[in-house]
Amino acid sequence: MSADDTSGVIEYPTEEISLSINGEEVSAEVEPRHKLSDFLRDARGLRGVRVGCEHGVCGACTVLMDGRAVKSCLTYAVQADGTEIETVEGLADDGALHPIQESFHEEHALQCGFCTSGFVMATKELLDENPDPDDDDIETGLADNVCRCTGYQNIYDAVHRAADRLETGETDADETHAGEDDA
Ligand code: FES
Ligand code: FES
Description:
Blueprint: E1 15-21, E2 24-30, H1 36-43, E3 62-65, E4 68-71, E5 84-86, H2 99-106, H3 116-129, H4 135-141, H5 153-168, H6 172-182
Parallel strand pairs: 1-5
Antiparallel strand pairs: 1-2, 3-4, 3-5
Helix pairs in contact: 2-5
The structure holds FE2/S2 (inorganic) cluster (2 copies).
């Protein structure tokens, strides 16, 4: 607010960013102070991006930026300019869960579910880089994510199961059709 401005309204500068979000090209005006997590949740309605600690500890806000897991609460929206962002909302294919999502479901790798989208996206980065991780690889790959409910063993089992499903190409849709055949 300038000295001779008595309106009481403070106008902050904005910058235009253009990025891909779950395959959709998006342009927006954002203030440089805006976090990517808030931009995705509030401006784009992607509420699967969870905000827990807001200081980089819990991993609930994890999204992929150009294929790498980032904590969107520690990333400014302007830093996402020109990048490809993937959130949990982009994983399902025409209603069929992604093999990682399906594996978390089958292995009961969640209870309250608050941490789950962050774990799923961190798992996607892990399996994209290492399709057959052992427990040590999983511990390292998911070390930035915290779950307060599950005790982690089911999450490990889900990651192994997802790796198997991705290797064999088994999908949720395959299971649906298999069930139809049995009926
Ligand atoms: S909300 Fe981002 S790490 Fe916890
Ligand atoms: S399932 Fe509740 S925090 Fe992980």
